[in-house]
């Protein structure tokens, strides 16, 4: 049976990925850091959709907690076969002049180091060279890596640019071991992340300026993620799907 681990699966895009995997009958480990109730609600939705689910707390920036996440996942639901490195943060919108080393370090710690640690544990579990089943990893990047997010989130954009490079490097490194690595780049998607960026209505407001004329939904991102994870994408690695309404 397919067993998917999703970091930051409690809310937003991660939760939508969990639910869609549940609808395909997969087992899903829903990781979260703070919001146990939201993670449990996602797990309930996964089961209602036809899958199996467990929640596991763990901060992706803490090396031991990431190792523990994968150990708990495998102990509860069997060998891990698919992973989505989704957990990410944005700091309140700021111009460059107001950015600090501390803020940059935090954004990089969660978005880049957290993804690297997740990818490392994923590879340890999946790699055929280490006795694993092979499998697929999807990294949740952002259109910010291509657009730069001037005047608001250049630090976040830079962290997502690092994820694009990580995707390319890991795809080549892990392909011989039977592990595919791809990324999705969402555009403006309606989730709570915009509130933490200081602009709760940002997706709705700016969505109208995209060629498709609206913000995207978490379900639309989840569809792209599930395709990249699936065997239908068996010859696709080191690739990017922009889910951005043409932005
Ligand atoms: P949300 O803020 O809605 O959800 C973020 C999730 O990440 C939560 O489940 C949160 O868990 C988890 N999380 C945050 N920090 C950590 C951590 N240190 N360890 C473990 N989990 C953590 O965000 P979105 O769903 O919008 O974003 C998901 C991903 O999509 C992010 O990588 C984001 O950058 C990316 N993205 C989003 C876009 C958008 O418009 N929404 C556009 C482009 C990319 P908890 O609250 O329980 O701590």
Automatic annotation (TrEMBL):
It comes from Amaricoccus solimangrovi. The keyword Oxidoreductase applies. GO terms for molecular function: oxidoreductase activity, acting on CH-OH group of donors. Pfam families: adh_short_C2. This is SDR family oxidoreductase. The keyword Oxidoreductase applies. Belongs to the short-chain dehydrogenases/reductases (SDR) family. Keywords: Oxidoreductase.
